[in-house]
Amino acid sequence: MLAAMATPVLAQDKPGDIRGTTLEPTAENLAATWRKANLVLPAALTGGDRWQGAAAAAPEVTGKAPLVVLLHGSSGVAPAVKEFQVWLADTMGLASVAPDSLAIEGRMTYVSPVSIEIYERVHTLRLAELTHALEASKAWAWVDRSRIVIAGTSEGSVAASRYAGPESAARLIYSWSCEANYFVEHPRLGFGPEEPVFNAISARDPYFSPSNPWNKDYAVTGNCAGALKGNPHAVVLVVDAEVHTILNRPDVREATSRFLSSVLRP
């Protein structure tokens, strides 16, 4: 994600750099994010080998299975995102799809920090991508719609946490703190008070922890514990690390596995 700060699309790679102009969630733009979405199907669902490819080329399968809708960070469907999807398929037996926001022609990319107005336009687009993905996935008869998991990492986690629709059986929020900081006007969280939510983030996350000077005007804690207080089905994992992208760490995967196993039981 987000932290687009690690976004390799800008040669200068300087804070405040912006390339592209498009952040409008038009029908054409949303369709592009779905056509090029990265879909991974576990072997148990295909009846053969694990399948991976564009959502537009999804093969015919039979039966019913849960689906994880995963929103990538600001650097797109990066190798870490695909690696996580493969792990979901091979270890958890779960199908997953990651809409590709950067498939939009002229899609704006940035190196933080940029203005809050730009961030909020990005979040609006990402939320529209999620809503579109949930609707488009209805064409897949194999999806068990009572067991849909909404997930996100960094930039994608803002939309994953803001979505207020009824579809999610659980949420996975990686590398985002669910609180007011330099990256959002307001958290505007959409999950219910008892909805199963898993949050994992580094204790010294370079973007959302108190150690980032961009957050000096905010009372940040650096994780979602405050937002999830009182939720009996919430799990917050604060990793003793400084790295931003953590969804493929062994300890994070182990905690994710325990959480998903508990909430996706048939």
Labels describing this entry:
26% helix, AB_hydrolase_fold, alpha/beta, single chain, 266 residues, Alpha/beta hydrolase, eight-stranded mixed sheet, disordered N terminus, two-stranded antiparallel ribbon, 6 helices, Rossmann fold
Folded structure, characterized:
This protein has a single domain (4-263), classed as Rossmann fold. It is built from six helices and ten strands, in the order βαβαββαββαβαβββα. It is of the alpha/beta class. Strand 7 (143-153), helix 5 and strand 8 form a beta-alpha-beta unit. The two termini are 32 Å apart. It has helices at residues 27-35, 43-46, 79-92, 116-136, 155-162, 250-263, and strands at residues 18-19, 38-41, 51-54, 65-71, 95-98, 109-110, 143-153, 168-174, 197-202, 234-239. It is globular and about 55 Å long. It has an eight-stranded mixed sheet with strand order 3-2-5-4-7-8-9-10, sandwiched between helices. A two-stranded antiparallel sheet has the order 1-6. Helices cover 26% and strands 20% of the residues.
Principal-axis shape equals globular
The CATH architecture can be named as: 3-Layer(aba) Sandwich
Query: In what order do the strands lie side by side in the largest sheet?
Result: 3-2-5-4-7-8-9-10
Order of helical and strand elements: EHEHEEHEEHEHEEEH
The amount of beta strand, in percent, is 15-25%
* Spans of at least 5 consecutive residues with low confidence: 1-11
**If helices are DSSP runs of H or I spanning 4 or more residues, what is the number of helices?**
6
**Strands, total number:** 10
